[in-house]
Design goal:
Number of strands: 6
Order of helices and strands: EHEEEEEHH
Shape: elongated
Oligomer: single chain
Structural class: alpha+beta
Distance between the termini: 31 Å
Strand order of the largest sheet: 1-6-5-4-3-2
Strand content: 15-25%
Radius of gyration: 20 Å
Mean pLDDT: 82
Largest sheet: 6 strands, mixed
Helix content: 40-55%
Length: 152
């Protein structure tokens, strides 16, 4: 689903070693209870990373974005970090399944004229999708702002 893919470029004045040190200070390998880290994931020796935000755990923590970062030295004052925010693969499949299942139920209700009207269910699908998208966008913005702040 390209709908959930967001790209952001972060310019940093840090060199690669400083960037890796800053990321290591804020990223842990696996989430632990009462952790002080902002992100969890992996950082390779080139500074590239695949992380998840861990600062915003609530009832909707499964909608947190997967953040992939690619570091390049092309920027004259430092580093250029190209980040891609996306839903994790399992969440994409689950969301697609829920939408497909609800559409099938809408079709069944339409042809059987049952108590629940099909257009009501269809409107709930739209509201659900808008809600998921709004929560996801908020988490992407929050994650991007924190990443920008720590990598400047």
């Amino acid at each position: 689903m390209k709908l959930f893919e967001k790209k952001k470029i972060i310019y940093s004045t840090l060199n690669k070693n400083e960037l890796i040190d800053v990321l290591n200070e804020n990223v842990e390998l696996f989430k632990k209870d009462n952790s002080r880290y902002l992100f969890e994931g992996k950082i390779d020796s080139d500074g590239n990373f695949i992380i998840y935000p861990s600062f915003d755990y609530n009832a909707r923590n499964q909608i947190r974005p997967l953040i992939k970062g690619v570091v390049s030295d092309n920027f004259e004052k430092g580093l250029k970090i190209e980040t891609t925010f996306n839903l994790p693969g399992m969440m994409k499949r689950l969301l697609g399944f829920v939408i497909l299942l609800n559409l099938i139920v809408c079709v069944i209700l339409y042809f059987n004229n049952l108590f629940l009207k099909w257009y009501m269910l269809l409107s709930f699908i739209v509201i659900f999708c808008l809600g998921v998208y709004a929560v996801y966008n908020e988490k992407v913005k929050k994650s991007a702002n924190i990443l920008e702040r720590i990598l400047k």
